[in-house]
Amino acid sequence: MKINQAFFRTIWPVVEGGAVEIIDQTQLPHRLHIVRIENVEAMVHAIKHMQVRGAPLIGAAAAYGMALGIADGALDGDVERTGEVLLQSRPTAVNLRWAVQRMQRVLLALPEEERAVAAWREAAVICDEDVALNQAIGQHGLSMLRALASARGRGSAAQPLQILTHCNAGWLATVDWGTALAPIYAAHEAGLAVHVWVDETRPRNQGAALTAWELAQHGVPHTIISDNAGGHLMQHGKVDCVIVGADRVTASGDVCNKIGTYLKALAAHDNAVPFYAAVPSPTIDWSMQDGRREIPIEERDADEVHYMQGVTADGAVQRLRITPPGSAAANPAFDVTPARLVTGIITERGIASPAALHALFHTSD
């Protein structure tokens, strides 16, 4: 996608080899900072501290982390240990384990002397596949948005289709294009007028900081709202649909996404607003049925609640405490939206209700 009219991906190998570079998302929207990652420990730090984030991008980063981790040794034990180190970085996004296990499966099937080169090759394939999956999600989502716009008499400059999203599930959360934002980008490119309500997404403000930034870079009309405003907008007919991403979707269609998503789904259900999750197939965990009981929910550092980062009047980026000294803070990073509140799941194969998700992927196999 675009930054200052130049095309970027979120992660890429350094031309001379032996390292990868990433956009440091903790510096956005105030500063575009490129970080070079040269070993698996640095990649773990980047994942854990959210320099890279979003389920698909975490998977891509883990794939390159495997390549970095076996650069100096590719014995079976090296491959296994590198995977274990990466798996400790973040627990909720299923793409992390999916990518590590795929890399291990490919590498352990090869002679030791072929593994280092193969690791870089396979990581690049995973990245290219992610882009293709997200482009397909965009096209299926575009068909839905066109139908919705037609039914509601929207889609013109005077009456754009109104879409609400939560957290960041754009190209910054993937290798390119994004998941929840892919249909929005596709609609914008196709000339279907859309306007995006962007939840700020406390406590890390991925909506206000990241979604708004990338939509602005691409010229998509949008408005940032507080996390508590979505229900009010739905009550007053100002939201035509909700589209979110996910860090894990169960086989039954439960959607695990950034904390606060469940509340948006409840408001959407109460106001008959369609609620969609957009996910590539590696984000679907076919081994799980009950998201609330089975999905591990990451509890992040309380300081993310206590502090906020912003720009002062003189342009300096500062971190400020916003809570009283001595007050405790809890920081669950995700919640689970039950399948009963989900209108449809947008995938690279099409759109399915939660009840039809399994059939979408398995009846043709």
UniProtKB/TrEMBL annotation:
One of its GO terms (biological process) is L-methionine salvage from methylthioadenosine. Pathway: Amino-acid biosynthesis; L-methionine biosynthesis via salvage pathway; L-methionine from S-methyl-5-thio-alpha-D-ribose 1-phosphate: step 1/6. The active site is at 247 (proton donor). One of its GO terms (molecular function) is translation initiation factor activity. It catalyses: 5-(methylsulfanyl)-alpha-D-ribose 1-phosphate = 5-(methylsulfanyl)-D-ribulose 1-phosphate; 5-deoxy-alpha-D-ribose 1-phosphate = 5-deoxy-D-ribulose 1-phosphate. InterPro entries: IF-2B-related, IF-M1Pi, IF_2B-like_C, Initiation_fac_2B_a/b/d, M1Pi_N, NagB/RpiA_transferase-like. Substrate binds at residues 53-55, 90, 206, 257-258. It is an enzyme of class 5 (isomerase). Its EC number is 5.3.1.23. Keywords: Amino-acid biosynthesis, Initiation factor, Isomerase, Methionine biosynthesis, Protein biosynthesis. The record marks 167 as: Transition state stabilizer. Belongs to the EIF-2B alpha/beta/delta subunits family. MtnA subfamily. Catalyzes the interconversion of methylthioribose-1-phosphate (MTR-1-P) into methylthioribulose-1-phosphate (MTRu-1-P). Also catalyzes the interconversion of 5-deoxyribose 1-phosphate and 5-deoxyribulose 1-phosphate. Part of a bifunctional DHAP-shunt salvage pathway for SAM by-products. This is Methylthioribose-1-phosphate isomerase. It comes from Methylovorus glucosotrophus (strain SIP3-4). The gene is mtnA.
